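User: Show me a protein chain along with its predicted structure.
Assistant: Here is one chain, sequence first, then C-alpha cells.
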Amino acid sequence: MRIAIIGGGAAGFFAAISCKEHHPQAEVSLFEKSKKVLSKVKVSGGGRCNVTNVSSSIKELVKAYPRGQKLMKRALRKFNTTDTHAWFEQRGVKLKAEPDGRMFPVTDDSQTVIDCLFAEVNRLGIEVNMGAAVQALHPVEAGLKLIFKEQQLQYDKVIVATGGSPKRTGLQWLEDLGHEIADPVPSLFTFNMPGNPVRELMGVVAKEAAMSIQGTSLKSEGPLLITHWGMSGPAVLKLSAFGARALSEMNYHFKTQVNWVNQQNQDLVTQELRAGLQENPKKKISNLRIFGIQERLWLYFLEKAEIAADKICAELPKKSINRLVHLLCNDEYEVRGKTTFKEEFVTCGGVAISSVNVETMASKACEHLYFCGEVLDVDGITGGYNFQAAWATGFIAGQLA
C-alpha cells in the first residue's frame, strides 16, 4: 500500500507515524510545500511548545473547542490527552503541567518535540519531501493521483493535513472534490484599542476578569492582560475564538464590557469596597489594596472615576463609591481591529465536519481520502487544545479505517 500525507505540520507528522505503525508494510511519503516542516510546533508557547492539556475529562476538554466539538468528542475517546502524554514520554520526551493546565516538555524547548517526531519518522522509514507543493488531486481507479509541478504520482490512500487556510481560495481544490467548506476567518486574536489610555498600563494583568461583547451573547472569563495595542490574555483569546465568526462580520469594530473583578452582583462589590474603606479610614484612597487589583490599574480607575488619588478613604462620598463600583463591574471599551496572537495563527473554518466521517476522518465525498488537523473546521482556545486536536485526528486518520 502506498500512502501520501500532504502537509508537514504536527497533524501531518503524527498521521504519517500512525500510518506506519498501523500498516508497517506500507510505503509512506510526506509532502510539504514549503522548505520548513513543523514550523508551528517551533514557535508554539513562546518556543516551548504547548504539547497538550493536563485535563483528561472529555466533557471538559470539548468545551475548549468553539468548532468541531462533535468530532473532538469521538476523537478524544480514541486518543485522549493521557495518550498524548504517554506517547511522548515513551519516546523520551518528559512533560510537565503548569498551574493553568498547559503541558510542556520539561526542557521548555519546542525543539525537543520536533526532534522526537523526526526521530520517529526516520526510525519508521517515512520519506519526507520538502518544497513539494501538490497542485491538484484527482481520483483514479483504486486510488488518488497527486499532481506536482514536474510529476504525477499515484497513491492508494491520501491524508490531507495542510493546516488552516487564511482564504477560501486555498481550499478550492478540496471544494472541487465535493467537500463542503466553512469560510475561514481568524481565531485567537487580541483586541486593538487605538488611542485608548488603558494602553499606557501595558503589562498589567487583572487575574480574574469577565468580558462580554455588546449586542451578542458572547462571554468569557479569566486573566486579562493589557498590552501596548489593547487587551490580550486568556479572557480575550477565549472571546476571540468563540466569537470568531461574529467578530469578523462586525469587521472587528465593536464594544466590549469588562468586569474587572468577575463579580456580577454589584451590591457585593459595593459592600467589599465600603468594608475596605471603613477598615482603612485614614489611608489615602490611592494606597487602598482591594480585589487583588494591581496598583497601576487601581490608580487608573481612580482617575477614570474622577477621584483624587490623595482623597482620604473615610471622606469618599457615596457618589464616588458608586462610580468606582460601576467601573469595576461595567467598564466599556471600543475595539477597532485585531492582532494575531504571537505567531500562533489559528483559523476558524475549513473542511466542514459534515463532509467527514467523524469516526475515521475519511472523506464522505472522495474515496481513499482522509483529513486531520486544522484543515478541518475544528479549532480550540489556547491551552494545548489545538495540538491535541492535531495528535488525535492524525492518529485516527493514520489508521486508514
